[in-house]
User: Fold these one by one.
Assistant:
Number 1:
Amino acid sequence: MAHDHGHKHDHEHHPHHGHSDLDWAAIAPLLESQAELFAPLHERALAWLAQQQTDPGLVVDAGSGPGVVSCLLAETFPGARVVAVDGAAPLLERARARAERLGVADRFGTLAGELPGVLGDLDYPADLLWAGRSLHHLGDQRAALAAFADRLAPGGTLAVLEGGLPARFLPRDLGFGRPGLQARLDALYEEWFAGMRAGLPGSVAETEDWPALLAAAGLGHSHTRSFLLDLPAPAPDRARAYVAATLSRLRDSLADHLDADDRATLDRLLDPDDTASVHRRPDLFVLAAHTVYTATKSL
C-alpha cells in the first residue's frame, strides 16, 4: 500500500489513524473537494511560477493526489505535457478523469509509484517539477531533493510547497470553552508531526531551511513567496465542510492529548444541530498561507 506521501498538498494535512490503512478510493472525493477550495491560492502560486519558467515542455506534479493542482499546471502551461505522480492508484484515476473533464487529457499522463524513485521512470527530464507538501512525507528530505534535482532538465525549475502558517477558521473566543482552541490544537499537531517525521523509513532530522537544501541539491537562483487563501465570514458551504473534516480528524487523532474541556468544545463545534457549530455559525472563515520555494538547475 502506498505511503501517505503525496496526497496532502491539495489540502491542509492532518493526522489520520494509520496511513497505510487509508481507503484512497473512499476519501478521494473529499480530497478533491478540499483541493478545489484551495485552488485560488494555487492559481496565484502557479502564475508566479510561470514568470520563472515560461515555456516548459514537461511538467511533473510529484505527489499529485487527485490531480487538482496537476490540472491547474496544465492550464497555466498550455504548451506543456503534465505528468501526475502518486503512490495511490485511485487518486491517479481521479486525476485522469479530471483532466478529461477539463479538456487537457491529450497532454496529461500519470505515473504510479513511490517518490522519489518512481521519477526515474519518466520518459525524459522535467522542465518544471512541482512538489506540493509531498517532500515532508519522505524520510530523507535532503536525498529526495537531490533525486528531484537529478530529474530536472538543464534550466529546469524545482518548486517546493512546504510550510507557511497554520490555517485559522474561528475567532479566538468562540463564546464557549476556553479561548485559544486553535492555538492549542496547533501545538498538539506539531508534536504529532514531529513524531510522524521521526517514524518515517530512513528518517533524517533536517533543519528545514528550504533555500539552503535546494542549494545543497545543486540548484541556484532561489526564490520564495507565500500565498494567501482568504475566505472571509460567513464561509461558503464547501469551506464549512473542509473545516468540519479537518477538526473531526484532529479530534479523533489527538483525543488522548486533549483535555476534557477542549474535547467538549470540539464536540459542540462538530454537532450539525448546534447553532454554534462550524456548520452553522456566521463567523466561520478560512485564512491560510502556503509558502513556495523555487530553484533552477544550471544550463
Number 2:
Amino acid sequence: MLQYKAVIMSLVALTLLGGCDTSEPDPGKQTSVKIDFMEHEQYVKPYPTRLIVTNKFMRFDDGEGSTSFILFNRDTDTIYSVNDDDRTVMSLKSQEVELDPPMELELEERNLGTLDDAPQIQGMTPMHYQFFANGEVCYDVVAVKGLMPDVVNAMQAFKAILANDSKVTFNNIPADLHDACNMSMSTFAAGRHLKHGFPIQEWSVDGDGRTLVDYTEDYEPDPALFELPEDYRHFSVQDMRTGKVTGGGH
C-alpha cells in the first residue's frame, strides 16, 4: 500500500500547482487536458507516464517523445496499441460480451472519509474509498468528485472495452487461478473505482498503483499525437487470436 504521507504530499503539490480556483466545474466544457502520473509496480522503480485527453481521443504514453503509445478513439470506441519496436498497430474494437462470473461476487465499497490534513483541489475535497470482493480488499482510491468529469467518462469507456475483451478469453483461465478481486476489477466490475470522481491516487493490494503528479487544462496538443503510423503493420486483436498474424511487424 502506498504510504499515507506520500498521498498527503501529492495533494499539497497539486493544490500549489492548481492554484485556488474554487469555481464549479463545467460539465459541458470542451476537454483538452494533459495529465502526468507516477506509476508504481512491485520490484520496479516508480516511473512517469502521461495521459492526454480531448473530446475525440485519449492517449497513454511515457511522456514527451514517446513513439510507442495507446490511443483510444472516443468516436469509434476503438483502442489502438502502437508498438514502435515491432512497427505494429493492434486494434481493439468495442463489443458487447455476455458472460457470468464462475462464482458469486459479493462487491462492497467503503467510504473512509477525507484524509487528515488533505487540502482541497479546485475547491473539492478528496475522499478515500476502499473496494472489496468476497470480503477481501481489492483496491484503494483517493478520488475528487467533479474534477475533470469528461476525463473520467473517457477512462470508464476505455475500461469497459478492455473488460468486454477480457470476457472473450476468460474461460481459458484455469479454475484454480480464479480470484474474486482480479475478476471484479478487470472483467465483471471494471471501472467501479471511477464512480466517485477522478482518481488522484490509487493502489491495489499487490502494491501496483498510480499517483497524480500534475495536470494542465486547456492544453493544446500536437494533432500528430493522435495519428496512427500508416507504414506500420495494422491488425486487430481478433486477427491475432485466430492466427492471421504471424512473424514481426517489419
Number 3:
Amino acid sequence: MKKTLGAIRKAVKEYNLINDGDKVAVGVSGGKDSMALLYGLRLFQHFSPVKYELQAFTLTLGFDNFDLTPIKEFCEKIDVAYQIKETEIGKIVFDIRKEKNPCSLCAKMRRGALHDLIIENGCNVLALGHHADDAIETLFLSMLYSGRISTFLPKTYLSRKDIHVIRPMIYLPEYEIKNAIIRHNIPTVKSPCPADKNTKREEMKELMKHINKLVPDARDKIITSMKNKEQFNLWF
C-alpha cells in the first residue's frame, strides 16, 4: 500500500481534505476502488498528522445476489465501524421508472441517500473512491457528450448538507489500485447492477487505453493540465 498511501497523503496535504476532529465516512460499494480507499484511510490514520474518525457505509439498491459478508468481515478485521442501509433505488430506476439511461438518476438518488445516512451518523466528511483515471474519464465524458471542460474536484463543500465530499485517491492510477487489492488480499464484491460494465464510462476507459499506448505518460500530462489553471488557452 506504499504508493496508495503516498497518493492519499499528497492529496490530503495539497487540498486540505481532512482536518483534526473530522468524522470521515467512506462510501463502500464493494468494488476495488472503495475497498482500497477504506483500507488506505485506515492505515493512514496511524501516521496522519491530522486525527480523524473513520466509518464505512454501504447502500443496497434492492438487487439480488449482493452478499456483503466479505465487507463486514473485512471491516471487523481492520476495526472500522460498518453500516448497511437497505434501499430500493435499483428497482425504482430499472423496474418502476424503466430508465433508458439509468446511471444518472441512480447516481443522484444514491448521493442523496448516502449524504443523509452519514449525517444521521454524525459524519461531516464523505470520502469517495474516485481515482486519477476516473477524473480523466469524467473530463472526456464532459467534453465529448456535454460540450464542457469539466471534471470532479478533489474536495467539494455541500452547503445544503453541511458536509465535505473528498476524493483522497485523486492522484492514484487505477492499475495501482488493482495491484494493491491483489497484494493485500482485500476482498471485493461484484456489482449486481444490470448496467455494470456497459456504460459510456467504459467507452472512455477504452479510449484512454488507446491514448496511453500512443503516449505513455498521457495520464500524468492530463492530470497536470487539469491543475494548470493559469494556462488555459480557450475561446472565451
Number 4:
Amino acid sequence: MKRTMAVIVAAAALFASACGSKEDLSGANSTTASGEVVVGSADFTENKILAEIYAGALRGAGAKVSVKAGIGARELVVKALQDKSLGVVPEYTGNLLNYFDKSNTTTKTDEVYTALKSKTPSGLEVLDKAAAEDKDVLVVTKATADGGVKSIADLGSDKYVLGAAGEWAQRWQTKIADLYGVKFKEIKTTDAGGPVTVDALKNGTAQVANLYTTSSDIAANGFVQLEDPKSLYPAQNIVPLLRSGAVDDKGKAALNKVSQALTTDKLAELVKRVDVDKETAVNVAADFLTKEKI
C-alpha cells in the first residue's frame, strides 16, 4: 500500500506549488539536452536510496548524472519521464502495472513483469526486474508462528485481530476471504506499516499485522512473515523505469547489474542503515555499489 505513490491530494498540491518548489522540474530539459541523465525518486527512504544506487551505477558506466529526490506521487514521476524532465526512476512492478492498466488482475511475479512490459506506454521502457521486492506482507509473532500459523491459510476464521492501515479492509478483506477463507475477528486501524502497527503486534492488541517485506521491524522483533501461496498481494519487484533514449546500452547494462544484485534482504538492510542508523542515502548507495562491484 505504501508504494502506490499515487496520493491524489499530494499530487494536486505538487502541481499547484510547482513553481519555485524543491520539486519543480522545470528547466531539467536544458540539462538532459546536454546528455545528462536525471534520476528521480519518490518521497520515501527506500526509493531515494535506489535512485542514488541507479545514479552511481550510471556514473560508473560513463554517464553524466544528477538526482532529483522526493518528487512524490507516481503521476508526477511518469509525467516527468514523458516530458523529458527525468530519465530514470526506480519503480515497483505490481503498482506500476496497475497504474498503466487499471483492469489488471495479475499478481504473480513473472506474469506481472510480462504484463508490465506489454502495458508500458510508448516512449517509456522497463529494464530487468530485481529479485528484491517491497510488498505488503502479513506477519505474526514467533509465538503465534510456533503455534502453527505459518501461512495466511492457517489464520482461519474469527480467530485473530489484524492491525493494518485504514484502507486495508476495503482493498483486501474480500480478497483474503475468497482466496483463503480467512476472516478476522477484528480489523484494527493502525498505520501503514509504521510504529503503531508494530506496537499493536508486540503488545498483543493485534495478533496479525500488515507490514512490508523491506521493513527493518520484522527482523528486529523476530516477527514471522506468513506464506502467501495464492498471491493475495501482487508482486512488487524493483525495476528501473526509463524514458526511451535517455540511457545508452552501457548504462542499461549497469542498471541491469544493479537489479541482478538486489535482494529483499539487502534492500531491507540499506533502509535500516538510513532510517535507524542515520547514515545518508548517498553513502549507503555508494557502499552497496562498491560491495557488489558495480
